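Below is one such record:
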Amino acid sequence: MAVLTLAGGGCQSCPPEVERLVQCPDFSAPETAGRSFLAAIACDADVAAYLCLSEGLKEQHAATLDGFLLFKSELEREYGRALGYAARLQPLGPAEDAGGRVRIWWGLRGEPVLGLDFEPQYYLDLTTHSGSRAGEFLERPPGTLLHWDGGRLSLEAPPALAQRFPDLSGIRRLDLGTEWKIRDVLAPPQP
């Protein structure tokens, strides 16, 4: 539950370049997702920090946004030093774990302060002409759900979306992709 105590802390005023990451987080790669999370921590933007967490982490700790906010003080106690420097932490190098996760240690002057484990999170979102949206998380990478059938491209869609949109003529946009989200927060190894 260490991740629950990371929210909160940070500086009172945020530099503009850090604030931009809070307003427009980037989950396209582990490092940019980590920068987005650390920016949210530095700017004391709890909702933005919560959005950086993987669904697996949220499920593991039954962490709703309310739960995330309740554990804020515990995170500040556990990672207080790291939170004070969140906007200045730099990646010390990614290392892929065997399970498809990526771990990046973040630190100052080459010394690790905290580690973030990332996992890919796959999704499918549909938007109608009227602007209503629906989406589902996918269990497999997007490329494994696409198939060529002659000259046609077909997609294995989650049953819930197929039920909600039996007629696809109202669909304006389809987004199929991968986001990198935080699966765990780690204290640095002790010497």
